[in-house]
Design a protein that fits this description.
Layout: E1 4-5, E2 11-12, E3 30-35, E4 42-48, H1 56-63, E5 75-81, H2 97-109, E6 119-122, E7 125-126, H3 133-141, E8 148-155, E9 160-168, E10 178-186, E11 189-192, E12 202-205, E13 208-217, E14 223-231, E15 241-249, E16 255-262
Parallel strand pairs: 4-5
Antiparallel strand pairs: 1-2, 3-8, 4-6, 6-7, 8-9, 9-14, 10-13, 10-15, 11-12, 15-16
Amino acid sequence: MPALVLRRSVLLVGFSACLLGMLARPGVAQQLSARSGTQTVALLELYTSEGCNSCPPADVLVSSLAAKGLTLDRVVSLGLHVDYWDALGWPDRFAQAIFTQRQREIAARHRTRTVYTPQLVLHGRALSTWGALDAEVQRINHTPARADLSLEATTQASNTLEVIAHAVIPEAAARPHTQMYLALYENRLASVVTAGENAGHTLRHDYVVRQWLGPLAIDTQGTARLQQTLSLHRDWKTSDLGLVVFVQQHQTGEVLQALALPLGQ
């Protein structure tokens, strides 16, 4: 299994990506990198809303995956808060219209008219039975990866993050209609809800997507590259941030590979 390596030569076993970094000190840039392995990492998308009283159990499920052995070398999670609940009593501060659009595209791809929360989408397909998650992730993990992914990130004292994401699709037949996406997520978030269906409750979330970039087309040589400076809000906790890059076939929704890079290592 690939190892996670920090500049102080600390070897952390259990994470398949190889991380090379410099431990952060006040005023000093932190540099991290990751590269995908030979087996496929599953991509799990949670479509959720703080206005939905059936959503908290799904948040708990996603937050508990690592403790159950479904670590980032096996499944990469993204919490995508939709905005169609916002007018029903409680505006979700994490909601973005682009996530609603993406969920509707998934529904259209599979000829489904309705969208709903909570919805778990595993590797491009709706997961109707949550209890099947472990077995489905195992099945995906046993599939050889069809894309090679890498991430580089440098955090600066100026609340910016320099990111380079790169994808290579070796198989020519897999390149048409294939696109690369990049997401910046944050863990350990909480909201005290005072209105709507969850009024009076404190909701906790992990893997909440803060920024979303893409899609970027794969070129005829089978590559895509994104170099971007991301502005980090002052209330975002750098130690709880992470990056995800994945490659997906637009027409079928098939995910060729996913890769996560936690920034708090």
